[in-house]
Amino acid sequence: MPRTRPEQFSRLVAVTRTPARRPIAAFFAAWAVLAVLGSIWAWATPPSASPDEPAHIIRAASVVRGELFGEPSAWGNIVHVPQYVADAHRETCYAFQPTVPANCPLPTEADPAALVEAPTSAGLYNPLYYALVGWPSLLFGDADGLTAMRVASAVLSALFAALAFAVVMTFRERRMPVLAFAVAVTPMLLFLSGTVNPSAIEATATLAVFCGMLGVTLSPDADRLRGRAVIVAVSAVIAVNARGLSPLWVLAALAVPLLLTSGRGLAQLLRRPAVLVTIGVVAVGTLAAVGWTLGTNSLANAIAHPEDALQFPGVGASPVTGFQKVFLGTIGYSQGLVGLFGWMDTPAPDPVLYAWGLAIGALCVGALLVLRGRRLLVASVLVGAFLLLPALVQAVYIHGGGLIWQGRYNLPLFLCLVVGLAALLGDSVFRARHSRRRLRILVVTAAAVGQLWAFEAALRRYAVGSNGSVKTLLFGSPDWAPLGGAPAVLIVAAAAFGVAAVLLFRASGDSGGRRFTPVAAGPAARPAALGSPGGRSGLRGPGGSRGPRAPAG
Question: What does the mean pLDDT of the chain come to?
C-alpha cells in the first residue's frame, strides 16, 4: 500500500474532522427563535402600544379589503374597517404617559365586526407591507385579529433576519459576525417586530440585502452565488417597498459592500446571469417603490397639504439647523435603536442602554483602529452613513415639514453597521481560543440579560406604570395584564431568551464551520488579511516564518 503524503493526510483530516456547514438548518432555527421572540413581545404589549400603531392597523385592514387610499381629511385618510380595528385609536389613553397603565376602557355595545369609518395617517403609505400582515383581520371578527396581525408581522420580520443569519453562517470567517447578531437584534427590533409597524421588516430585509452582498464580495463562493442573489433580490424588493425612505437604505446596503471588490472583480460579477437577473428584479422593485412614493407624494404630503397632516416643530428652519439637530443628537436618538418602547415614552433601563452602547462603540473603534485597505474604507463608509444620512434627510425635510426624525428610522443602517463591522474584523481579532470563548460568554450573557431586563421594564410600565413595583406586577393585581398573567409571560420570555442565547453561543463557536487549512486551500480560500479581502494573511507563523496558518483551536 503506498504511503500517504503529509499533504494528503492533512486534507483528509480537514475533511473528516470538520462537519459541513448547514445554512438551511441555521436559517430555520433562527427564523423559529426570532419569530417566537417577536410573538412574545406581541403577547406582552397592549393593543396600540407602539408608535402610530393604530394608523398602521387601520391601514393594513383597509388594504386587504381593497381600499388603497380612502378620503383625505384633517385626521388622515378615511377608510372602512371593522369596528374592533377602528377601536385601536381609543386604546391609547396611556400614550406619552409612562406612569399610566394600559387599561383603557372601551364600549362594548357595538358589533366588533361591523364596518365603520376610521382615519389613518398612513393612508398614503406603500401597501405591500400592509397586505402581507393585514390578512388575519379577514379571518377574525374581534380583537384576536389584531394579535394575529402582530404575529404575522413578527414572523415576516424574523424571516429576513434569519436569511441574513444563514448567509453569514456561510462566511469563511463567520464567528464574529454571527456573534454580532446578539448586538444587532436589540430589544427595540423585537418590540417593533411584534407590533403592526413596517420599521422592523424594513430593517431586517435591508440587513438580508447587505449580508447577501457581503457574502458575494467578502466571502465569495461560486456555488452559493445563485442562492445569495435570490436572497438579495427578494429582500431588496420587500425592503424598498416598506417605507418612503427605504430605497435610500437599500441603496447603501447594495453599494457599500461593492467597495471591497476591484473593477475587474465587478466586471466578472456583471457577466454572471444570476447577478444580471438580480439587478433587473431589484430595479423593477425600486421603480415600483419610487413610483408609488412620488405618485402619492407620501413623503412630502405634510409639506404639500399641511391641513391634512400633523404639524411638527421646526417648520421654516434652515437645513443647517436640521442637520445639526440630528447629527449632534445621534447618541440621544440611538436610544430608539436599543430600547424606547410604547409611544417613545418608555426607555429601556440605563444599564441595558449602556451595555449596548459599549458594544457598539467597541466595534466602531476596533474597526477603525485595526482594519486597513479596502476593509477600512468600507468600515469608514458604514460609520459615516450611519452618522450622516439621517442628518442629511432631516436637513432636506425640516424647512417644509419640521423636525420629524426618530431613532428607529435608522434601524436598517444600524443593523448593517453592527454586522458589517464584525464581518470586516473577522476572526483575526481574537486568535486565541480562550479569548474567543470569553468574548462569546460575555456578549451572549449580557445580551440575554439585557433583553429580559428591557422586556420586564416594558411589561411593568404597561401593567402598573413605570413607577409601579415588581411585587405588584408579579404577585398583586396589576391594572393591566396580558393573557395568562405577567408571571407566565416573564417565565416564557426568560426561557425563550435562554434558548436563543444557547443557540447563538453554539453557532458562534469554533465547530460547525469549514476550516481552510494551508495545504488544502488555494490562495482564494485562505483566511483574508484584514486589509485585503481574499489576499494572503501576512501574519507570521511559528518560528517567525511568514505565511498563512490555520485558525487557532
Answer: 85
Beta partners for residue 116, in sequence order: 81
pTM: 0.87
pLDDT at 298: 77
The stretches of 101-197 forming alpha helices (DSSP H) are: 128-134, 144-168, 175-184, 187-193
**CB–CB of 347/353 below 8 Å?**
yes
Residue whose C-alpha cell is 415600483: 288
61 or 535: whose pLDDT is higher?
Answer: 61
CA nearest to 119, candidates 310, 288, 249: 310
User: Cα separation of 165 and 425, whole Å?
Assistant: 17
The helices-and-strands tally (H runs, E runs) of the chain is 23, 4
- For 48, other C-beta atoms within 10 Å of its C-beta total 26
Indicate if the pLDDT at residue 365 is higher than 70. Answer: yes
Can you read off the three cell numbers belonging to residue 195? 407590533
CA angle 142, 146, 147 (to 5 degrees): 110
Please, which residues have CB within 8 angstroms of residue 321's CB and are 6 or more apart in sequence?
A: 314, 398
Q: Are the CB atoms for 106 and 119 separated by under 8 Å?
A: no
Question: CB of 198 within 8 A of CB of 242?
Answer: yes
CA dihedral over 333, 336, 337, 339, signed as positive or negative: positive
For residues 170 and 286, what is the distance between their CA atoms, to the nearest angstrom?
A: 28
Pair 434, 356: CB distance under 8 Å: no
pLDDT tens by residue, 18-51: 333 578 999 999 999 999 999 999 999 998 998 8
Q: Give 3-state DSSP helix, strand, coil % of the chain, rounded to 5.
A: 65, 5, 30
Element (H, E) at 497: helix 486-507
Distance CA 281, CA 531 (A): 33
Q: With helix as H, strand as E and coil as C, how does 373-440 read?
A: HHHHHHHHHHHHHHHHHHHHHHHHHHHHHCCCCCHHHHHHHHHHHHHHHHHHHHHHCCCCHHHHHHHH
Q: Which residues contact 282 (CB under 8 A, 6 or more apart)?
A: 232, 233, 236, 237, 240, 250, 254
Q: What is the pLDDT of residues 136-162, one digit of tens each?
A: 999 988 888 999 999 999 999 999 999
> How many angstroms separate the CA atoms of 191 and 193, rounded?
6
As to burial, measured by CB atoms within 10 angstroms (0-12 exposed, 13-18 middle, 19+ buried), residue 514 is: middle
- Beta bridge partners, 532, equal 529
Residue 79: strand, helix, or coil: strand
Q: Helices 373-401 and 350-370: crossing angle, nearest 10°?
A: 130
The backbone torsions φ and ψ at residue 483, rounded to the nearest 5 degrees and listed phi first, read -55, 125
Cβ-proximal residues to 58 (8 Å cutoff; 6+ apart), any chain: 79, 81, 85, 86, 88, 89, 118, 119, 120, 122
Q: In whole angstroms, what is the distance from residue 142 CA to residue 126 CA? A: 26
